[in-house]
Known about the structure:
By secondary structure, this protein is an all-alpha fold. About 65% of the residues lie in helices and about 0% in strands.
Amino acid sequence: MTGGFAALLVLADGRFPAGGHAHSGGAEAAVKAGRITDGPTLEEFCRGRLHTAGLTAAALAAAAAAGLDPLALDDAADARTPAPA
Length: 85
């Protein structure tokens, strides 16, 4: 892949109507607030996310793999999301 093509993909990524998005889970706000200032504090933030939101996501994924209703699981995930992305 050429550098120009890679740059085009990066620039276009957020503009494609793919129906999805990605977010940082609050990392930008933590940087702005001074809670993430370097590699170790970023690692601490990520570990905290794994022990909170990560466990919830894993439980929902396990429930989906066990065959629970995907729409009910989507509602359960929404109920555990404090604010829309």
